Fold:
Amino acid sequence: MPKRIFEFVCVGEENHLFEKFTDTETKTLVCPHCGELSNRIISTPRIALDGCSGDFPGETIKWERKRAEKLSQERKKNS
Structure:
């Protein structure tokens, strides 16, 4: 069975959140903080927007401005 890091949240009053390296089949564990039952949850994905594609106009404008500033600084440095 493959193993991965999953997030779990306990059903106790404190709702402890913790990560555990475990089998992909594991759905519940005992909370290491309070000993209550904990359920595996879906983790928040890490998303990075591509500023060069044009799909996100605000990011594209920001990228173009930074690129223009960088080119300007390089030209000044090389002059």
